Amino acid sequence: MLDSLVIGSPKRTKNSRSAWTDFFPYYAGFPEEFAKNILQSSGLPSSAVIFDPWNGSGTTTYAAAQLGFSAYGIDLNPVMVLVARARSLARTEADSIAPQAKSLTKGVARLTIKIKETDPLLQWFDLETGNVIRSIEARIRSRLVGTCDGDLKSQFDKISCFAATFYAALFTVCRRLTVPFRSSNPTWIKTPKANESKLTVSANEICGAFVEQAERMANALQTSSFLIDPARVKIAVGNTTEFKEKGLADLILTSPPYCTRIDYTAATRVELAIINALCNEGRDDLSKQMIGSIKVPADTIQPSIFWGETCLKFLDRLKLHNSKASKGYYYKTHLDYFDKMSKSIYNMRVSMKKNAAAIMVVQDSYYKDLHNDVPTILAEMAENVGFRMRRREDFVQGNSFLGINSRSRMYRDTSRAIESVICFEN
Predict the structure, then answer these.
(1) What is the pTM (predicted TM-score) of this model?
(2) How far apart are CA 108 and CA 111, in angstroms?
């Protein structure tokens, strides 16, 4: 199977998006066409299960569902789970979106609901504005999700693709409103300083923007060319260091988190604030669990021979680097990354059927002037748990997260990265 795969560049471009997927513009992931080409050339029957353990905004599950496969995706970030569910909405639901959005906002300005002073929305919005946003979210929750019986996980698990679509619409509205607090780094949003004003937006403006966004989503969904059966798509919150459902997948297609010290929760701070009532954990706790977390791990981690020779040599060089905090903070966060990736790759293999295939899109990175050959490291980790390496395709990417930090030019004169597609058999 792997020899016949059609593998194009995994770099997302402006022209690689459809009208419907334009509503889910989250920063990471490969193009829909890339995923479709791989799945279509895999030769798998329609009964096959396609699994993405780092599902993100749902490109793999969406592409698989369009092609008639059963799709399963997990992600640690509950925001991305809702986004991926919304993306999987059946086209037959399009006519119901706009009327529901109007119903959800009707009379919101007259509601007497009082937002709590501890509500995380108040990091960016003043009390009245936060109250309007929370009122819309509360209506989505009560009307389309159901009341909470004390088990937040059960409540979150029953959020349908239809309900998730309205969360996605509210996410978009609030992302636009908080543009003044965004920086050149697409994964970061600031909070107002003491001398800065919080955002004040009228109820009519927020409700109007929400309904307009829902209408645009409905129109795009109506014109999409594929019918999706949501019953064959399952997207859930899951941690790859713990998740292993034996014999689940016929094929894994995924892109693990970059080893570039990106706080993947920071990019969704506003969205996490919106769904605060649906989540058990705060953003800091979630951030610590993320692969590539910028938080120093609480437990002491020792390098393992199962991480492979390339990884261990890189860690030795990092620890001996003369830059500040190399042998402390940076060494520990890299240990955390490789420890979590090693556990995740082992669990991936457990979750695969016999002779199933795994395809990972992996980007290299740098620590100062030290090349971190992440594709080779993950390939060695995979082979050490029993995978058979079958194919690797490398693509040079001109723009990457390496170029965000101007100080990186002190150590190297390019921000180019290598994005590799590495293919294994179980």
Answers:
(1) 0.93
(2) 5
